[in-house]
Fold this protein.
Amino acid sequence: MTDAATGPVATEMRERLRTALSPTAFTLVDESDRHRGHAGHDGRGESHFALTIESAAFAGQSRVARQRLVYAALGELMRERVHALTIRTRAPGEV
């Protein structure tokens, strides 16, 4: 598993996703610096992320259902701290 984001919000996101979804592949990238001066960027950083996650929990699930699983795992972080999250999901064996 690759983790490019290491701040406290990213660490909490990573732990919640690992606990809820037991991913077999995982990449979380903090893209906040790319959004400096845009909506949702409040200067604290860790507001915009890109997530690629593979989990058996996604097998047989629609794209929307998979995203709901991710949002449920992240809970209040999505309402209170993370402004934007790009999500790429796959089940093991999918390309």
The mean pLDDT is 88. Residues 71 and 79 are 10 Å apart (CA to CA). The first strand starts at residue 25 and ends at 30.
